[in-house]
From TrEMBL:
CDD domains cross-referenced by the UniProt entry: DSP_laforin-like (cd14526)
UniProt domain Tyrosine-protein phosphatase: residue ranges: 95-252
Domain (Tyrosine specific protein phosphatases) ranges: 172-231
Domain of life where this protein originates: Eukaryota
GO biological process terms, semicolon-separated: starch catabolic process
The UniProt record lists the keyword Repeat: no
Molecular function per GO: carbohydrate phosphatase activity; phosphoprotein phosphatase activity; starch binding
Keywords tagged on the record: Carbohydrate metabolism, Hydrolase, Protein phosphatase
Classification via Gene3D superfamilies: Protein tyrosine phosphatase superfamily
Source lineage: Eukaryota, Viridiplantae, Streptophyta, Embryophyta, Tracheophyta
Protein name from the UniProt record: Phosphoglucan phosphatase LSF2, chloroplastic
Length: 285
């Protein structure tokens, strides 16, 4: 699909393996890396059956945290993907994917140097953080140092927390998160980096909801386009639920929970206009 004026979809949609090679060394996990740089600039989260080995230099606490997190991910998201926080010990501490020309979805920045990379290499002007405080504390991230570096480099840091592995929290938080994302993209000052912890649940859900509500495509198209580039397991029902909440203009409307699974996978033009107005109305809240 060619470029469009609002930057929703463009020629950026290519094969996730295009121009990439696998680096295979005994001392490294099996990673997707750039031909030009020894860094993760696409996605380094692999299916659990792929046999990735943990970095042998990781401490026991980090390993225990990753195991605990991945167990919760597989249970709540029914996803075979894993988050490897310890990649940051020897390589750029993020994994991310370009979704459009101005939208990147990825994992949490772990240190100020990650902010420098996003600014210098990816021309990021906004960061939208979907983590709760307890998520950041769990991984031992110094958020203050990251926010400080954002200010120093001219990146606008925004937060719209949602509870991890909680579809109801995601559903209720999506409108405000998409409001921040849509505003940042509309400003046109640079790319927007949207992240949660692993970049596999909350962050891609926000990006998909944005594409669904503002880019004129149905939910399946938005979902398939993102997940074909970044394999992940965002909760589609939460997006449908948030769509229902925003489009509802009748207090006697049938409850969402009683609707069939395909309900609100698509919306009429008047519903999209209503949703866009209500989402834009959340700016500054």
């Amino acid at each position: 699909m060619g470029a469009v004026s609002n930057g929703c979809f463009s020629s950026v949609f290519t094969s996730p393996l295009e121009n990439e090679v696998f680096l295979k060394e005994k001392s490294f996990p099996r990673l997707l890396v750039s031909n030009k740089f020894l860094k993760v600039n696409k996605i380094s989260c692999r299916k659990s059956e792929s046999g990735i080995q943990e970095n042998p230099t990781s401490n026991r606490s980090s390993k225990n945290n990753m195991e605990e997190y991945n167990i919760a991910m597989k249970k709540m998201m029914r996803s075979p993907y894993e988050y490897h926080h310890d990649l940051g010990e020897w390589i750029l501490g993020m994994n991310y994917t370009h979704i459009t020309n101005n939208l990147i979805v990825g994992s949490q920045p772990q240190k100020p140097e990650d902010i420098d990379h996003l600014k210098q290499e990816e021309k990021v002007a906004y960061i939208l953080n979907l983590q709760q405080d307890k998520d950041i504390e769990f991984w031992g991230i110094n958020l203050q140092s990251i926010v400080k570096r954002c200010k120093e480099t001219g990146i606008r840091h925004m937060r719209r927390p949602a509870r991890d592995f909680d579809p109801d929290s995601l559903r209720s938080g999506l409108p405000k998160a998409v409001s921040s994302l849509e505003w940042a993209i509309s400003e046109g000052k640079g790319k927007v980096y949207v992240h949660c912890t692993a970049g596999l649940g909350r962050a891609p859900a926000v990006a998909i909801a944005y594409m669904f509500w503002f880019c004129g495509v149905d939910l399946k198209t938005a979902y398939d386009r993102l997940t074909s580039k970044r394999p992940c397991g965002p909760n589609k029902r939460a997006i449908r639920g948030a769509t229902y909440d925003l489009a509802k203009n009748d207090p006697w409307k049938e409850p969402f929970e009683s609707l069939p699974d395909y309900a609100f996978e698509n919306i009429a033009d008047w519903e999209r206009n209503l949703i866009q107005g209500r989402v834009r109305g959340l700016r500054g809240t």
